[in-house]
Specification:
Elements (H helix, E strand, L loop, with lengths): L1 H5 L9 H14 L5 H23 L4 H7 L10 H11 L5 H16 L3 H11 L10 H48 L11 H10 L1 H17 L4 H11 L8 H12 L2 E4 L3 E4 L7 H36 L1
Antiparallel strand pairs: 1-2
Helix pairs in contact: 2-3, 2-8, 3-8, 6-7, 6-8, 6-13, 7-8, 8-9, 8-10, 8-12, 8-13, 10-11, 10-12, 10-13, 11-12
Length: 313
């Protein structure tokens, strides 16, 4: 509710700004040799830095754990704890901003303002050059970004919270941020960013596949083709260089019946429907439904793990 109502705070006040500063500091300090090991150590140190405070603050004291023994499970925390946890969890995910960025590209295309659509796509969603993309390619890139980032922006951080609490969610967000800032195959980042990139792939392995299946289910719920979505996902998820992003992008391609084509890199063939504004709006409907399903799954996992852990205590 906080995310949908308010979105993210301004960039200068966003807690993730501190993560960026830590990573930029590491980038400046990185030696010319042993860059892989420096990158691994700096990433692990940053993970502890941003996750450990929540582990300490929210860890029950030993006497509190003893008091919990034999007590009936309280499914819901107090209102105060619920609000505090929600406020501290919110910065690690951002579905509203992702959704608005995709819709802003669609609105520019609807006005037939291709340069503005290209600019918005480059500014909000992708890191590549967009100045030579056609209308269909801009629409396709927006749909790809929506499908791919649904994992990073919502499903994965919520599952990290479900399993590891606030410490797990913040640890995931730092590793994902490190991959976003350092995970490039350039002379500067090839070795420096290899560890966070591989660790991010590992952490997203399950969430990406779960999100792919949530998109399949969501497609059926909103009147798109769940069958084609599943068929395309299972048959073409390996076409992308990333071991994870292909699952969600191919599922979305099949759900919409479109072909998502990144020039010279991959082609996800879900059908021959036109890539235009309406396709983006259909993609948003599918993603909205999948996001709601993802929140529901995360809640179930959280309650189940909480029940088991309190039973053990």
């Amino acid at each position: 509710m906080i995310d949908l109502t308010f979105g993210d705070p301004p960039n200068r006040f966003h807690p993730l700004l501190l993560m960026g500063r830590w990573l930029n500091w590491g980038r400046r300090l990185a030696p010319s040799r042993c860059r892989f090991w420096f990158g691994a150590g700096w990433t692990l140190a940053g993970t502890l830095l941003f996750a450990l405070p929540w582990q300490i603050l929210f860890r029950p004291r030993s006497n509190e754990r003893r008091k919990m023994k034999g007590r009936a499970l309280r499914i819901l925390p107090t209102s105060y704890s619920l609000l505090l946890t929600s406020l501290l969890l919110k910065p690690v995910f951002a579905y509203r901003n992702l959704r608005r960025a995709v819709i802003s590209v669609a609105e520019a295309l609807e006005r037939e303002d291709l340069p503005e659509a290209q600019r918005r796509l480059r500014w909000h969603l992708v890191s590549r050059n967009t100045s030579d993309l056609s209308t269909a390619e801009v629409a396709g890139a927006a749909i790809e970004s929506l499908a791919e980032n649904l994992t990073d922006s919502l499903t994965a951080p919520l599952l990290a919270y479900a399993d590891g609490g606030l410490a797990g969610a913040w640890a995931y967000r730092f590793i994902n941020t490190a991959d976003a800032m350092w995970g490039y195959r350039t002379p500067e980042f090839e070795q420096l960013g290899k560890f966070p990139a591989r660790l991010d792939d590992l952490l997203n392995w399950l969430p990406a596949r779960l999100t792919g299946w949530l998109l399949v289910l969501a497609a059926g719920l909103v009147g798109e083709s769940a069958h084609v979505a599943a068929h395309t996902m299972l048959g073409q998820h390996h076409r992308t260089a990333s071991p994870n992003s292909g699952w969600t992008m191919s599922a979305m391609a099949g759900a919409l019946g479109v072909t998502l084509d990144k020039r010279g890199v991959y082609q996800l063939e879900g059908g021959q429907e036109p890539l235009e504004v309406e396709a983006i709006r259909r993609a948003v409907r599918v993603a909205d439904t999948a996001a709601a399903l993802g929140v529901f799954v995360a809640v179930l996992v959280t309650l189940d793990l909480t029940r088991k852990r309190r039973f053990i205590l």
